[in-house]
Structures are given as C-alpha cells and as structure tokens.
Design a protein that fits this description.
Rossmann fold, alpha/beta, 6 strands, globular, His_Pase_superF_clade-1, 207 residues, 14% strand
Length: 207
Amino acid sequence: MSERLLVLVRHGQSEWNLKNLFTGWRDPDLTELGVEEAKTAGKRLKADGYTFDIAFTSKLSRAQKTLDLALAELGQTGLPTIENLALNERDYGELSGLNKDDARVKWGEEQVHIWRRSYDVPPPGGESLKDTIARTLPYYVTEILPKVLQGNRTLVVAHGNSLRALIMVLEKHTPESIMKRELLTGVPVIYRLKPDSTIESVVDLAG
C-alpha cells in the first residue's frame, strides 16, 4: 500500500488579502504574488518528489486556481479533483468586503478582535471558527480521510480557516491554540498518517 500522505495548502494571496478586506465566501482572484505562491508550492512539492492521486478544493476560485497552478508545476494537470463548499473559507457575514480598519471604526477594536480571534463568537450573519469546523470536519472524516487511509496521496488546497479545522484535529489543538496556528499562503504542510489516522510525521515547509 502507498504511504498515507496528506498535504494541505492555503491558497495564494488574493486581491482582497492585499487590500486588507474580509473575504469569506466572496470570490476575488489571485494577485500576481498569489499566482507565484501557487506555482512555488508546486515547485517545492515536485523538488521533494511528491506526486498525488487525488485532490480536494473548495468552491472558491482562489483555491481552485492555486490548485491548478500547483498541479501544472507538478506535471499533474488532469488529476482527479473534487470541489466542495464544505472546504470554503469561514463566512464573515456582514464583514465580508469590508476593510478591516473600517470595521474597527464601525464596531470598535475589541469587538472586531473578538469576531476574528474568538473560537465561538460569529460576526453578524457569519460563522465562527467553531461553526466552520462543524461544516468542514465531517467532510474530512467521511470523504478525505478515507482516501488517505486507503493509500491515496491526497492534496487539499483550501483556506486559512477551513484548513485550521483539519489541523485542529490532526495536531490536537485546543480552541485556544488553534486560533494561534498560522498558515502562510501557498506554503504546503505535509502529513504522513498512521493507520489509526493520527500523525506519524509532519513537515511545514514554512519552517
């Protein structure tokens, strides 16, 4: 059986990342830097000898484009790929599209900080990280993890908060520690799993 390989990649920088806007389920494109980050992810994985059997991504174009660019560098265009909104970014509700500084002016520094960094307090009309995990984790358990445990080398390209949901389980984070777990855009995190789905090894290419 092939190794139980799971690689997570946060999409490259988006236009709204650059503009300091809350993005959520809105669908801006990658910046030029984001395109380069996506290509670099593919180059780094290829340089280390990785290939994949299946990929998963969200319904948002910044993640899909990152995946496509990385796969092109890997020479794996046409890899079987599954898109699902369960892997979409956290929905920021009424904050979506707002500049983060403008949001602080409107609601106050402390309130915006709570919405961004608390585990279970959602912004108006949106999701908390707890809500995002409740959406993302069942999909991981029923659709992604079985592929990995069957020996399919699996690549997941998604978003900061949807990937944190997976990392919370993989790395056994608490609600407090997961909020501090940083994920850089376009940087692969490479897990090898044991047969019981726990981590055998992890390599974060961010260092």
